[in-house]
Amino acid sequence: MLYRESGDFSSTYAEDSQTFPIKFDRYRYYFVLFVAIAVIPFMINDYWVNSLFLPFLIYAIAAIGLNILVGYCGQVSLGTGGFMAVGAYACYKLMTSFPDVSMLIHVLLAGLITAAVGVLFGLPSLRIKGFYLAVATLAAQFFLVWLFNRVPWFYNYSASGQISAPERTFLGVNITGANTQAWATYLFCLMFVIFSAYVARNLTRGSVGRKWMAIRDMDIAAEIIGVNPLRAKLTAFAISSFFIGISGALFFSIYLGAVEVGEAFGIQKSFLVLFMIIIGGLGSIFGSFAGAAFLVLLPVVLKIVGVDWLGWPTDIVAHLQLVIVGGLIIVFLIAEPHGLAQLWRVAKEKLRLWPFPH
Amino acid sequence: MAGEETHAEEDDRANPALSDISREETPMNMKLKLTTVALGVTLAAGPAMAELVFPSLSYRTGPYAANGIPFADGYADYFTLLNERDGGIGGEAIRMIECETGYNTEKGVECYESTKGEGALVYQPLSTGITYQLIPKATADGIPVHSMGYGRTSAKDGSVFKNIFNYPANYWDGASVAIKHLLDVNGGSLEGKKIALVYHNSAYGKEPIRTLEELSKKHGFELSLLPIDHPGQEQKSQWLQIRREKPDNVIMYGWGVMNQVAIQEAANIRYPMDQFIGIWWSGSENDVRPAGDAANGYKALTFHNVGDDFPVFDDIQKFVVDAGKAAGAGDQIGTALYNRGLYAAMLAAEAAKTAQGMHNTTTLTPAQMRDGMEALEITEAKMADLGLPNFGPEFKVSCENHGGNGFVAVSQWDAAADSWSLITDYVQSDQDILGPLVTEDAAAFAAESGITPGC
Questions:
Q1: In 3D, which of A158, A183, A150 has the Cα closest to residue A92?
Q2: Which residues of B touch A166 (CB under 8 A)?
Q3: Beta strands B164-165 and B145-146, pairing class
Q4: Which CATH class is domain B52-170+306-406+434-449?
Q5: Percent of chain A whose pLDDT exceeds 90
Q6: Which residues of chain A neighbour B328 with C-beta distances below 8 Å?
Q7: What value does the mean pLDDT take over residues A42-66?
Q8: CA end-to-end span of chain B, whole Å?
Q9: B2 touches A at CB < 8 Å
Q10: Contact A213 B10 (CB under 8 A)
Q11: Distance between CA atoms of A320 and A304, rounded to whole angstroms?
């Protein structure tokens, strides 16, 4: 009964084309933003932030980035881990070279550097498609990880080959290093999440996004109606890599603090983010959030239920998690290829018709 | 509804009929609901304070499980023994919280955060990567970390790494003792010899490179480096290179499935096993057994004794195994890594006892535990008293030295007898080379993170 558009009239073009045209949705969106910005920071501690919120927020950015490339532009990529590594190492080099500059600038620059690398590795997409492109991006994944392991300049010649985030600040508040406050790291990441989601949402609604989708749906037809495939594909690679680079930078500097490239940004990371958008929903910003939340929360919830409540052995629970994630991916691919986002859409559709389905 | 078709939304590829719905997507909406559910769940498990809490960051899954399981079992069984036989430490029951990390740093962080609120006294993550993560975090939280034979080697310098301990031996000690052993075998000179280092391409595997480079300058051998990427199932090209270059010796810093594959590959190219030395993390039964008889003669370093011929194992049989309280499958007792887990638990328990004596209390805080670890002294009499005579080297921890004295022995695998045996005494590492390296690396860390060294 609550979820109705009746009586909600648009009288200007701006109102007509807003992201949330239904009043109820709009208020709910403002409410979620309000809770995320003004309520959660006062309630969280280290455990909540480091186990749930930071990984969720950071993976959400990565999933948005990959969703732009795979879900909107239709270019399958397995190089997410490698691009996250570019963001992380770019951020590390910037942090150590310019210690006095704000973290905000470092993270954004890391995103831009990753965008440039992404364009470079996106060039083959003009010639190769589908599986072959997936393999080409896989090459990017392995090459980048190899590069960061191989060239000591990237890790400042440290003996262990690890990169560790020194203490850096944003607006005078410690953001990286050991002596951070839970609310500060949370808000810093949240800022990037809101920024990414806002930009991605509006890009995909606009002409750029429509070109991506035209390329995705049929590239030859798109070219004939005047979409330049070079520009469309490369902008998708650039913007996607920009977000993935930001998430890599945050993943290293804010969340983990110390990173080893092979372990943190290996092929598993590429698959994890890909699973997020498959489970969440290809071609949907909400799906990126849902998928990230799902795959971040699932292990934690399983651990709490299995180990802490039921007292099962830890290895059984860890194996169970693999079984469940694997099973869910198969179920989603067969039963609901458009993921959690589609379930959400169907639920909303039903709600609007309720109680008189016709 | 009719007018809404014009709002065709690009998000909907599947079902154009639903396109009018999808425009109301909310990027943030699901987050809150899902997280609140999870948070409510975590709150239900409240802390219980009047116990000694020892978290066990174990890994019984993934490519490193073959090595993670025996260690976790040994660690758990020793604490179970203390609880069953002695009623804990100093009359205070021990609660061990096991948390699965899968050797993965992200899960390691989650484990650390979820257990530290329970009053965790000391962390032993059994992973160099997780140790690197925990060094700054645990230092800020005032919780000690004991990275026994792994982690950051320069943590030996307690004036910089106040909360981090790595007694009784570290990676650089291992590299140095391996070279010392080779000197012994080769009549005191390694001039002109070729030594290859096969290492896990991670912070762990890279640790000994600096030391070996220094040692190669001192002793005149030629060092070649062969990195193997995580998880280490693919090593054909590295062993092809070894077959081509025929190094006189191979030293391995491997872990998990990498060990088994390396020993199998060495057997395949018929590399002489007695010229192949692994660090202590490459010296468990699970590593050599898959190669069968071909692994006979393989050497590995160790900083504690092998086998189950110690009085403490009788107690474990009686109080833990027979009572049905053995951790895991209970089939690892007496293996090399089980003994190491047991040794790690024993050192933690002894440090807790020391701390209880120092602070005249039975309940402990992490800060008191840290003091106990810094004042820990392991003597032969103490070990014999615990049912572990001649089990490890004697050492004494001090504020300057958090890393023990670097006494390491060499063990050799006998495939026919299916057991390890020590073939040397505990030999001290080359402190002339290692001392300056430790000081240098610790000073670099202190400068990097703004710590003023001091005791």
A1: A158
A2: 448-449
A3: parallel
A4: alpha beta
A5: 47
A6: 313
A7: 91
A8: 76
A9: no
A10: yes
A11: 13
Rounded to whole angstroms, the Cα distance separating B58 from B44 reads 23
A14 Cβ neighbours under 8 A, 6+ residues apart:
none
Contact list in A for residue B65 (CB cut-off 8 A) is 315
In sequence order, what E strands does B157-263 have? 164-165, 194-200, 222-228, 249-253
| All structural domains of chain A with their residue ranges | 1-10+19-43, 44-353
Fold of B172-302: Rossmann fold (3.40.50)
The alpha carbon of residue B261 and the mean position of all alpha carbons in its chain are separated, in whole angstroms, by: 20
Fold of A44-353: ABC transporter involved in vitamin B12 uptake, BtuC (1.10.3470)
Long-range contacts of B375-382 (CB under 8 A, 24+ apart): B376/B167, B376/B347, B376/B350, B376/B351, B378/B168, B378/B347, B378/B350, B382/B350
CA–CA separation, B67 vs A233, rounded Å? 46
Give the mean model confidence (pLDDT) for residues B276-280. Answer: 93
Asked if B14's CB is within 8 angstroms of A337's CB, the reply is yes
Q: Where are the domains of chain B?
A: 52-170+306-406+434-449, 172-302
* Burial class of B212 by CB neighbour count within 10 A (0 to 12, 13 to 18, 19+): buried
Q: Do residue A159 and residue B10 have CB atoms under 8 angstroms apart?
A: no
For A170, which DSSP code? E
Instruction: Name the band, by pLDDT with cuts 50, 70 and 90, for residue B447.
Output: confident
Rounded Cα distance, B64 and B259, in Å: 10
CB atoms inside a 10 Å sphere around CB B20: 24
The reply to whether B227 touches chain A by the CB within 8 Å rule is: yes
Q: What's the whole-model pTM score?
A: 0.86
User: Which residue, among A29, A51, A243, A298, would best test binding to B if mutated, counting the most B CBs under 10 Å from its CB?
Assistant: A51
Instruction: Kindly list the residues from chain B whose CB atom is less than 8 angstroms away from the CB atom of residue A304.
Output: 38, 41-42, 45
| Shared fold status for B52-170+306-406+434-449 and B172-302 | yes
Query: Which one of B35, B129, B139 has the shortest CB-CB distance to A178?
Result: B139
Residues in chain A: 358
Helical pair B431-449 and B203-219, crossing angle rounded to 10 deg? 140
Are the beta carbons of A263 and B230 separated by less than 8 Å? yes
- C-alpha R_g of chain B: 25
Say yes or no for a CB contact (<8 Å) between A300 and B11.
no
Which tens digits make up the pLDDT trace of A133-153?
889 899 999 999 999 988 889
Tell me if residue A128 falls in helix, strand or coil.
Answer: coil
B97/B111 Cα distance (integer angstroms): 10
**Which residues from chain A sit within 8 angstroms of residue B230, using beta carbons?**
262-263, 266
Name the residue among B350, B354, B404 with its Cα closest to residue B157: B404
Question: What are the contacts of A221-230 at 24+ separation with CB within 8 A?
Answer: A229/A126, A230/A126
Angle at B38 between CA A81 and CA A269, to 5 degrees: 10
pLDDT in tens, B14-39: 343 333 333 343 444 444 444 444 44
